[in-house]
TrEMBL record, chain A:
Ranges that cross the membrane: 21-39, 51-70, 77-95, 101-124, 131-148, 168-190, 220-242, 262-288, 300-319
Entry annotated with the keyword Transmembrane helix: yes
One Pfam family it belongs to: BPD_transp_2
Membrane-related topology note: Multi-pass membrane protein
Main subcellular location: membrane
Organism: Winogradskya humida
Protein name as annotated: ABC transporter permease
UniProtKB/TrEMBL annotation, chain B:
Domain ABC transporter: 2-237, 246-495
Organism of origin: Winogradskya humida
Keywords: ATP-binding, Nucleotide-binding, Repeat, Transport
Classification via CDD domains: ABC_Carb_Monos_I (cd03216), ABC_Carb_Monos_II (cd03215)
InterPro entries for the chain: AAA+_ATPase, ABC_carbohydrate_import_ATPase, ABC_transporter-like_ATP-bd, ABC_transporter-like_CS, P-loop_NTPase
Protein name: ABC transporter permease
Amino acid sequence: MTLTATQRSTLPGRHLWQAPEFTLAVIAVAGFAALAVATGGNLLSAGTLGAFFRFLAVPIVIGLSQMVVLAVGQMNLSVGALTGFCAMAAAWLMLEAGLPAPLAVLAALLLGLLVGVTNGFLVVLTRINGFIVTLATMTIIQGLRYGVNGPDTFQGYSPGLRAFGRASILGLPAVFLVALAVAALVALFFSRTVPGRHLLASGGSPFAARLSGISNDRSLIVAHGLSGLLAGVAAVLTVAASGSVNATIGDDLLLPSFAAPIIGGVALTGGMVSVTGTLLAAFLVRLVDVMQAQFGINPRWVDLIIGAVVLGAVLLGTVRSKLQERSD
Amino acid sequence: MLVAENLVKTFPGVRALDGVSLSLRPGSVHALLGENGAGKSTLVKLLTGVYRPDGGRITLDGEERHFAGPLDAQRAGIGVVHQERNLIPAFSVAENIVLHHLPSRGGRLDKRRMRAEAVRCLELLEVDLDPDIPVSRLSVAQAQLVEIAKALSLDTKVLLLDEPTASLTGDEADRLYTVVRRLRDAGHAVALVSHKLEEVFAVADTVTVLRDGRSVAQDAPLTGYTQAQVVDLMVGRAFASIALPDRTVDGEVTPALQLSDVSTALGHRGISLTVRPGEILGLYGLVGAGRSELAKAVLGLERITSGTVRIHGRPARIRTVGEALHRYRIGYVTEDRKGEGLFLDQPVSRNIAVTVWRRLARAGLVRDRSERELAGTYADRLGIRISSPRQPAGQLSGGNQQKVSLAKWLAAECDILIVDEPTVGIDVRTKAAFHELIAGLAADGLALLLISSDLPETVGLADRIAVMNGLRIVGELANDHDYPRMSQQIIRLIHAAETVSAA
C-alpha cells in the first residue's frame, strides 16, 4: 500500500500520464523548481525547506478532513473552527488542567471525533444538508473557542510536544511525516476497508448503495466522524508545530480545506476520492504561500490566486467529465 | 402533417428504433401502441427534438426538419405532454403555460400578454381554470390539462400525448379525452401513447403498433382491429416458448417466500403470494400496478402495516435491505439498473462484490485481487462480456449491466431473488439469453419472483402467474405456457379489475 494508490476507477488502457494526479505532480515539481531558482536557491536551505514541509502538515490533514465528507457528497464547513477549538482545548488541558501531553493529545482527538459524529447525527436525524448543519456547528464552535481562553494566547505548554513539533527525521519534519502517515491510513481506509468502500458507494449512488444493503445513514455518520477526527489530528499538529495557540487558529483553514481536495480532483458530488491528488494540491497551495512570503506579496493576492485556482479546478473537472461522457 | 420516415435510433448496446415510419394528419387522433420497451417513448422523443435520429427523416408539411431541441420543435408547432410532470408547482397556471417564451416589454415581464396567451390556450381546451393560482393548488387532473395547454402555446399544430391518463381516474380521463376530441375537430393532429386499450379504441382514428423497435402496423385505421388483435400485434403471435431447462417444482416443500394478507403504507391490501424453491412466480401487471413497490416493502424499504411475511416458513420482520440480504438471503434485481442497480463509474468487480465485502475482508481489509477473482467467476458463469474486471459498469451494454446487477446477489448466495423487469431496454437476442439464465437459476433451486409487464416473458418463464392491478392481486393462474390462452386470461383479469374500480 503506497500513497500513489487512489480510489479512482482506473480505466483499462489509461496510462499513468493520463491521470490528473500526474499533471498535478508535474506542476508541483516545476513550480518547486521555479521557486527554488527564483529565490536563488534560498528555498533549498535547510531552514527554509524544513519550514516549508513543517507547515505543509496541517493543510494536508485538513484537506483530507474535507475530502472524507466530500466522498459522501457532503461538505464540512466546521473543519477550520474545529481544528482551532481542539487546539485550544489541548493547550488548556495541559496548561490549566495540568494534564500530561499524551492525554491532552488524546482528548483533542476524541473531541474532534465527538463533534464530527455529532455533525453526522444532526445531518442524518434532521435530514438537513450537511452544509447548513456544519455552518451552524462552525458558528457555535467559534463562540466556544473564545470561551476557552478569551482572546489570550496559550504558550509554554509541554516542552516534549513542542520539541516533537520542531523535530526532524531524515531531514523531514516529524509533523510532516505524521501527516503522510495519516494520508496513507486514509488511502488504506478508502481502498481496502469495508466502511471506506461503503462511504464511496453511498457517495457514488445512494440509491444503488441502499439497494445493496448499505446504510447511507451510517456512511454519513462515519464520514463526518472521520472528518472530525482528522480535524483533531490537524489540531494536535498545530499545537506541536506552532508553539502557541490562540482563539484565531483555524480561521484561515476553511478555503485550504476545500482547495486541496478540489484541486486534487476529488468529485464534489461524492463517490470518488484521491489522496494523492489532495496531497499534491496541498503542496501547490503551500508553494503559493511561500512565494508570497518570499516576495512580500500582499497576502490578499494569495487568497485571490487560490480562490481562482479552486474555481478553475472545478470547471476543469466539469469539462473533463463532459468530455468523458461524450467519448463513452 | 408530420411525417416520420424510417427513423433509426441506437443507444449503447440497444437499437431502440429500427426503421419506424408514421404520419400524423390534421384532424385525426393517431394511437401509438406497443409494450414497454417497444420504442414508443423513444419515437415521441425523436419527433419532439429531445433526441436526434441516427437515421431516417422527419418532415413537417413537406419540409424536412432537424430539431435542435424541444423548444425548437415546439416553435415549429409540435407540442408534447410527457409522461412525467413538467410543471413548476410554485408558479401560476399562466406562468407555467407560457414558461418557455415569456413575453417581455422593455426587459420586464409583460404580465398582460402572458395572461392573454395563457387564457387563449385554456380556451382552446374549453376548460375553466383560474390562470393566476399556483399549480400546486391544482388536482392531478387539472395539472394534466395545464400540461396540455402548455403544449398548445406557440400555435401548436401537432400534439403528442404520452400516457396522459396514467394518473387519472376514469371520469377525469373521460373529460381529458373530450378535450382531445375537441382539439382534433379544431384541426390539430394528435398522437396518443397509452396502454389503456379501451380509451385508445374510444378516441383514436388510426394506429401504429411498435414491437421491439419496429412497426408491426403502420398508420392503419383502428376500425380494422379488435382489441385482442392489437394485443396480439403488440406481443407478437410468433412468440414461441423459450427453450428452457426442464424442471419440476415440488409443491410440498416449504415456501421460500410467503406473503399472507399483507398491506402496506403505500396502499397495497390483502396481498398473498407464495414462491417455493425452484419455482418462478410471475407477478404481471401494468406500469403503476404497485409491483416494484411491493418488492420494496418485502425488502424493508416500504412499511408493511399488517399481514405476515414468512421466509422459509418462519415469520420475518425485515427492516433494512441489509437484513434482507445478510439474514434472509433475499436479493432484488431492480428495474432501474442505471439509477439503483449499479455504481456506473465503479469497476465491474466492485459492483459485483459490493454485497460480500464483509465476507471477502481478511483482518478488516478487502483485497482488490479477491474482488477481481470473484467478479471473474461470475462473469464466466453468467457470460458477462467485460474487457477487464476494472472496466466501469457504465461502459457495458444494457444486457451485460443487467447481468452485473444480478451477479451481486448470486455472489451473496441469495436463495430468494426478486427480479424486476429484467429485460427492459435489452435487445431481443440478449433477452433470450437472459430468460435462459433466469430459468437456470430456478433449476438450481432458487425461488424467483419475476416482476414483468412483458407478457411473452411472463408466460414463457413463470410456473404460476399472479396478476396485479391497483395495488391488489386480482387473480392467480397456473401457467400452462399456452400463450394465446394465457395472455387472454391475464388481460381479461386486468380489464375486469379496471371495470370494477371504474364503477
